């Protein structure tokens, strides 16, 4: 019996130099029944051209353009991009055909059995939403798989739905608990102000694991979508936080999320995950 179709959404903005590597890490997954959706997020380089050429090499690849060119993408007061692919991911949701959905960032890489491990664990635990973990991007790890036999403790000691629901509740600001509408009406730069911020932020703990690449049932998107910064209940304190907001929202809504500390995602950043040093 063929395994169910999994849709992989890849938001891409000005990612022409890294997109091919990211896409190939999904194309070559050990789990083969994939639909791969590259969402060009109003790139100003040749990202769309690279994506189109890749789609001609594998029938599982499809290319779309983001529905929303967020005119508030760059926040001058915070001096940073606060979109970070949230609208492109929602565009991806409108095109998915898979029974399950996951993501891949256009500047990172997945180990080759990332999706297989996620699906196996999701099925085993009858989870609605499941994340693994990340390690620092290393060129030598591209095109490799992870040996699950090395992670017996991680398979026994993991974040349960109860753990993640509790995290979501204690990370939620008082104002959001009272009124989502009121929470959305206050500008983010005001929410961050000294003393006042205690009303809009609970604990500032991160969603554990690789929050940018969860695997979840398609039913999730009927109730949970990515939100603009003004509407996020769990943003990061410095802005953005679209992944944090999405994952905590799912954990609270469905009460059936899991996280396993198995580092199958290669994240381009300067420091190694402290769990794997």
Automatic annotation (TrEMBL):
Where in this chain does the entry annotate a coiled-coil region? none
Recorded GO molecular functions are: hexosyltransferase activity
Q: Name one Pfam family in it.
A: Glycos_transf_2
* InterPro entries assigned to the protein according to its UniProt record, in alphabetical order: Glyco_trans_2-like (IPR001173), Nucleotide-diphossugar_trans (IPR029044)
The Glycosyltransferase 2-like domain is annotated at 7-145
- Report what the protein is called: Glycosyltransferase 2-like domain-containing protein
